[in-house]
Amino acid sequence: MALDKILSIGGKPGLYKLLTQTRSGFVGESLLDGKRVTVGLRSNVSVLSEIAIYTLEEEVPLREVFQKIKEKEDGKKTTINHKADKIELEEYFFEILPNYDEDRVYASDIKKIIQWYNILVDNKITDFVVAEDAEEVPAETASSEEE
User: Fold this and answer.
1) Which part of the chain is the DUF6852 domain (predicted)?
2) Domain extents in the chain
C-alpha cells in the first residue's frame, strides 16, 4: 500500500487507511485497531505522501525520511521510543536527516514521524520508494535506421 492511501487525522491517534470517499468526506480504517471512522470534509486530514520535512536547503518528502529510517533500522521498528526525551529524539533524527531545520522541525514532529514509521512497519507497509524511480524509461529508442 502506498503512502497516498495513508492518512493522519487531526485529533485522532495513529494513522488511517483510506477506504472510500463519500459526498461528505471519507471512510478510514485505523491501522492501530482496525476500527472504521467516518471523517467530514472539515476535519484536519493529511495524506502522508503530501507531507515534507524542512531542511536547511529544501523540503524532503516524508517517504524519503521513512526510507532513511528503514535503512538505519534494517527494516525493523526504531530503536528509540517516540516517548523518549526531546534531546534523544533530536539526536536520533539528526542521524537520519543531519541537515533538518531545527527551528522549524519540533520534537513533537519527530515524535509523530517515529510513531508513524513504527505503525507502518507493524502493518507491513514499508515500500517507501516511489514507483516512478524504478520505471526509468530511456530517452531515445535504439531503432534508428540508416539508408
Assistant:
1) 51-120
2) 4-45, 51-121
- Ranges of beta strands (E only) in the chain are 6-9, 16-22, 25-30, 36-40, 45-47, 52-54, 59-61
Residue 41: band (very low, low, confident or very high) from pLDDT cuts 50, 70, 90: confident
Please give the single-letter amino acid code of residue 23.
Answer: R
CATH topology (fold) of 4-45:
SH3 type barrels. (2.30.30)
- What's the fold here for domain 51-121? Arc Repressor Mutant, subunit A (1.10.10)
pLDDT exceeds cutoff 70 at 138: no
pTM value? 0.85
pLDDT band of residue 84 (cuts 50, 70, 90) is very high
Cell of 5: 492511501
